[in-house]
Amino acid sequence: MLARLFPHPLLSLVIVAVWVLLANGPAASSLAMGLLLGLVLPLLTRPFWPERPRVRAPLTVIEYGLIVLFDICVANLQVAYLILFRRPESLRSRFVVVPLDTRVPEAIVTLAGTITMTPGTVSCDVSADGRALLVHALDVDDPDRLVATIKGRYERRLVEIFG
Amino acid sequence: MIQAALVIGFASVGVATLFCLLRLVKGPDAVDRVLALDTLVTNAVALIMLLGIAQATAIHFEAALLIAMMGFVGTVAFCKFMLRGDVIE
Amino acid sequence: MNGSLALIGEALVALLILLGSFFMLVGSFGLLRLPTLMQRLHAPTKATTLGVGGILIASMLYFLFTTGRLSIHELLITLFLFLTAPVSAYMLAKAHLHRSRAEPTLPNTGRPAGWATFDPQAEAADPEEGLRPQGTSSHARQP
Description:
The complex is a heterotrimer of chains A (163), B (89) and C (143). In chain A, 59% of the residues lie in helices and 11% in strands. Chain A is built from six helices and three strands; from the N terminus they run ααααβαββα. In chain A, helix 5 packs across helix 6. Chain A is elongated and about 60 Å long. By secondary structure, chain C is mostly helical. Chain C has one domain. Chain C contains four helices and no strands. The radius of gyration of chain C is 23 Å and the shape is elongated. Chains in contact: A-C, B-C. Chains A and C meet through helix 2, helix 4, strand 1, helix 5 and strand 2 of A and helix 1, helix 2 and helix 3 of C.
């Protein structure tokens, strides 16, 4: 019964949260409207969401979020330094290939987004079979270490989260 | 104190907008110009929020949100057009 | 007591405004200064996003200190920009690779398949087909 009413509990939760944010405060009226939308929208758009992404380790999600937030701040300082104080010709920019262990689409998307937001790297393309990411690094001296950092710091946790 | 910070903030975001415009005019390739437009939109959002602080009103919030959304949709549509020669296939 | 608290709050807001606009400036400066497009892509995606984030948090704190009510809807823009910046960077990179016909200059995938932008099969096929194991995709029937 509950699973029929809420085919996507996470999506419903996100809709309620966004509505409360839009209304700028958890007043009773906006909460009620958000709950109504969170109930109706997933039911109406159900054919577009055939599968439900599984989140296995909710605690790891928080840990991952904090790590990414910290890395975004570090990334900004690093990129700002590279832009302001390095001669553009001396930047060692190059493409790096990151082989993927995970096959879960949600994990790959999150990893690609994280790579773009964190130090000196932008993810550019995925291989046609979805097993490798093409990453452009702004300034790198040791590509292998960069790949090891991406895999150890981000992909390992994403595998824990999405399986 | 906030007033002084706002003046500096307005000035530097304005200069940033000028840099984007230069890249928009210069940009050797169409992708450069789309990138400059995308950054211009982000600058516009920052300017609107600064204006909201300066006038102590939250009335500009929806405009900033809508401009951010339109900027994202526009960038993706431009890229899709350059990739496929069509936006909706 | 209230006076010193207001002073700290004011200083914090001013600091965040300065920090945010500084990063906006750096991001756009990088857009102008760096020589190649792939390098230019780095500047706005990172610096500009944090710049806007700083200004939005400053606005949040400012309304908290002046009206005493927590104004949370700025978080929505911050979140939206953080989610969309990687997507537009990815699309721009793909468009650039496609337009400059960069395939020979790219490193090998290390897989039998090529990069998705240049693989004719990848565009034609269902993008989920290669990723999902077959048979598990249960398209929801109307009840």
